[in-house]
Amino acid sequence: MIAQPACVAARFITPSFDAVRKKKNPKALAKVRFDRFEEGQSAQIMHLGPFATEHDNIIRLHDHIHASHHTENGRHHEIYRGDFRKVAPEKMKTVLRQPFC
Description:
Blueprint: H1 10-23, E1 42-48, H2 55-67, E2 77-81, E3 93-99
Antiparallel strand pairs: 1-3, 2-3
């Protein structure tokens, strides 16, 4: 998931999908979508480092939710801060979010 400013609308994104489809048409393009995401109440933590080391922070996030007398409500998701292809793994930033009730 990549957060977009509120001013970005689907009408701005569709031409980009069309251009990529025409030029390269990667197989995974069909899996990409542009949606507004409203999850309600969530806990979050900033993970610093490669994706492979997220597990401990996900556990911390769930422990915090349980300690606050809540339960997870749905699957966690991630918001990538920056382009992971252009940054050293130890400098990667990922917001880990978990909806709860």
